[in-house]
Amino acid sequence: MNKFTKNIEDVYFPPIVKFKEEAAKRVDHSKPIFNLNQAIPNYQPPDVIKKAIRQELEKPSFCFYTFDEGIPELREAIADSLNRTFTKKVSRSNICVVPGANNGYYSMLPVIASSGDEVILLTPYYFNHYMSLKIAGIKPVEIILDPADSFSLPYAKIESSVTNKTKAVVFVNPCNPTGRSYSQPEVDKLYEICRKKKIYLISDEVYSCFHDSYPKSTSVLNNNAFPDYCVCINSFSKTYSITGLRAGFITASEEFIHHFTKVQDSNVVCVSTLSQAAALAGIKYAGEWLNGKIIFSRNKKEKFINLFKKSGSKFKMISSGSFFIYLNYDDHSIKAKDLCFMMMEKENIVTLPGEYFGSCQDYAIRLALGNLQESEIEPVIEKLAKIM
Predict the structure, then answer these.
(1) pTM value?
(2) How many other CB atoms are found less than 10 A from the CB of residue 296?
(3) What is the Cα–Cα distance from 41 to 276, expressed in whole angstroms?
(4) What are the CA-CA distances from residue 277 to residues 66, 69, 72, 272 (Å)?
(5) Cβ contacts of residue 29 below 8 Å, gap of 6+?
(6) What kind and span of H or E run contains 202?
(7) Which residues contact 236 (CB under 8 A, 6 or more apart)?
(8) Does residue 2 carry a pLDDT above 90?
């Protein structure tokens, strides 16, 4: 008898962890290491967040349970922030605070799908979305987007792929791993298909602040039909550089939040008071700081793109945006995973191969720029040109 379930054994080990372990063995630790492996900001959160955490620690209740759905003041602040930014008006009853976007996604799956059901992933996909489906016994159905068409959404193919087992389409905007920012008409058309087919659109908008159109970001929350057959995932991790505090939220119908809270209560119960205090302080007081970091991140990305174009590298930049650059290459004598190992050993560059982002990605590489210092951009591009 197997000691572990087939669902868990069939899932690959977390790619970020695996490549951190590989890097520890393969890079030269006596020289600078260029970490493009994980999408994390390379700056500290604003001082108002640090202050809020210190103040929370002085309260007797700092280590107590809070409301399952989140502290009412935080949910109210989230709703107010969304209402200032997007067209569709929501209330705190449409909000549930979650311990990070990944947990929010994982916890919503039992609300809309059962073992044996299907969920459509748009490839290249975010690997944790795939992993969660496999663990839950839900079948991922890939629709491979065409890099030659800028990873545009193939609406007819999406619609024809829906079966009586399909429960949702997962959409990431801006996309992790490609960085592609999708426009409002593209979002609306995809949402229209989901509503027509009576399946959920799971819209992951974790990088919405880094969308190409920010501060007028595209979102399902700009569609008057929301929240019908739709749930939106967001996070404070990248927005306020508090990745380790694990704080995010979902926005959905009151009925969805009602059922989702059953999963949250039986899973994590609630998000820590410290994390919620940090998120609330960010929403209330860190707007100017955030705008500065968005400009900083955009400028860093544009500098990378401009220098890369002049580098003569044989890598092809097929997409870019938010924190990411997505490359592919024509030399199919070496797959991306082995190429990434070579990059570690020869140039001290740590990044992720395309195989973790779905089918037909064996000759693609994701670069995560968030952790890259501006002074490291030129050396990294020179090293990439040496590799290919």
Answers:
(1) 0.96
(2) 14
(3) 19
(4) 12, 14, 12, 9
(5) none
(6) strand 200-204
(7) 242, 245, 247, 248, 278, 279, 282
(8) no
3-state helix, strand, coil in the chain (%, to 5): 45, 15, 40
The mean of the pLDDT values for the chain is 96
Q: Residue 288 is which amino acid?
A: E
Q: How far apart are CA 135 and CA 11, in angstroms?
A: 7
**Integer Cα distance of 108 and 272 in angstroms:** 19
Distance between CA atoms of 171 and 153, rounded to whole angstroms?
A: 10
Bridge partners (DSSP) of residue 96 are 250
Residue with tokens 């570690």: 344
Count Cβ neighbours within 10 Å for each residue of 140-176 and write b for 16 or more, e otherwise: bbbbbbebeeebebbeeebeebbeeebbbbbbbbbbb
Burial group, residue 5, by CB count within 10 angstroms (0-12, 13-18, 19+): exposed
The 352-353 sheet, strands edge to edge = 316-321, 324-328, 364-368, 352-353
First to last CA, the chain: 48
Alpha carbon distance 388, 385 (integer Å): 5
Q: How far apart are CA 250 and CA 325, in angstroms?
A: 27
Distance between CA 362 and CA 338 in Å, rounded? 10
User: Which alpha helices (DSSP H) does the chain contain, by range?
Assistant: 6-9, 15-26, 47-57, 72-85, 101-112, 127-136, 155-160, 184-197, 254-267, 273-285, 287-309, 336-347, 377-387
> Token digits for 325?
């650059």
Kindly report, residue by residue over 60-105, the tens digit of the pLDDT. 999 999 999 999 999 999 999 999 999 999 999 999 999 999 999 9
